[in-house]
Amino acid sequence: MVVSVLIKDKKFKRYISAERLQKRIEELGRQISEDYAGKNPLFIVVLNGAFMFAADLMREIDIPSEVSFIKFTSYQNMHSTGVVDQIIGVEEDLRNRHIVIVEDIIDTGITITEVLAEIKSYQPASVEVAALLIKPQALLRPVAVKYVGFEIEPKFVVGYGLDYDGYGRNLCEILILDEPQKPAETKIWTADQP
Ligand code: IMP
Ligand code: MG
């Protein structure tokens, strides 16, 4: 049995299996479909990290809905917290729409706070967040996340859309860092930014 997986230069171990992910995403899809029946929601997927979660979540949505994708440009680097410069890709008219933002992971909460502020500036009818993962102990600001897949410990994870320096996005399960993590290393990701 493989206990440790090397991704680039770091060791990771299995954390959330593909089966558990799919089961939880089914539940989320059912709940969102019930909550948004008759509301024609617009799902806004935050690229790149949420691509796999969004693809599976959307297959569980059984009500009329639309999907769109956004991406940030930012000056984020290896050890800094992501500061969003600009969000690109908002093309639809969001005014009076019911929006569900689809995010891979909420760590400090800074990114989603910025995304929420931007989306709200278009005066939608409502905005909620669906995040596959959240690290409650890493949050630096309060964020209301209505749909959460899994609450996880504040350690670096990879797989199922999430990357470590570009690698690991294609894995169908979530792996967690299997070595001591220094505080400065909690931001080793270069994340989705160009
Ligand atoms: P936040 O602004 O600190 O909440 O971070 C949000 C973004 O950072 C996420 O959308 C991810 O792209 C990235 N991120 C945060 N934690 C991790 C992790 O453990 N693995 C991979 N990417 C992460
Ligand atoms: Mg992300």
Give a structural overview.
This protein is an alpha/beta fold and 194 residues long. The chain has one domain: 3-Layer(aba) Sandwich (Rossmann fold), CATH 3.40.50. Helices cover 20% and strands 30% of the residues. It has helices at residues 18-35, 51-59, 110-120, and strands at residues 5-7, 10-16, 42-46, 66-74, 84-88, 98-106, 126-134, 147-151, 157-158, 174-177. Helix 3 links the parallel strand 6 (98-106) and strand 7 (126-134). The chain is globular, with a radius of gyration of 16 Å. The chain starts with a strand and ends in a 17-residue tail after the last strand. The relative contact order is 0.21. The protein binds inosinic acid (IMP) and magnesium ion (MG). Inosinic acid binds at residues 49, 81-82, 103-112, 156-158, 162, 189, 191-192.
